[in-house]
Design goal:
Blueprint lengths: L1 H8 L6 H10 L8 H25 L3 H14 L9 H14 L2 H14 L4 H12 L8 E9 L3 E7 L11 H16 L7
Antiparallel strand pairs: 1-2
Helix pairs in contact: 1-3, 2-3, 3-4, 4-5, 5-6, 5-7, 6-7, 7-8
Length: about 190
Amino acid sequence: NYEEAIKYYNSEFLTKENLKRDCMSNVRYANQPEDSVMIYVNGSLAFIKMSVAQCFLATGKKEAALATVNEAIAKISANSNIPTEDFYNTRGIIYLNFGKFKEAKDDFDKAISINPQMGIAYVNRALAKCNLNNKKPVYTSTFSIGVNNKNFNGVYTFPVEIKMKKDNENLRLALEDCKKAIETDSQLAYA
């Protein structure tokens, strides 16, 4: 239940202060400088925020999803080892839901530049490219959070009026992205 997940993620147990206290009592972090602990705490909070954003999107709360994923991205420290491609892939999916295909494409570009092996980001970018000239939003209808222990994916419903021309450069580039997705993950049925 996404609503229950949102309540849990926003509970008092997952506050910055509580996470910091728990880290300081952990043998691994007990003798670490506070700035090292805070990098871990902020990274944990960023992942929590990303999960909340995904739950908001799954419940149709697009504005809250976008605001929350932006908070998550802001928490990522430049000197941490956090894999940020999932954050940009998630925000790209949210932008698809708003019909902001250029912004979605830019975020999928960013995810791919961070991790060129992220097959689902190629598929998502292909969806954005196909719709760059379309002004209607894409609607997600089914979600799979944590596929392959990592990615957040949605099943998309597109407006039926989309017209593709044979010489459409965006369509050609989208097909190239699908090919790349299959090359990176031959089990990726979305491509």
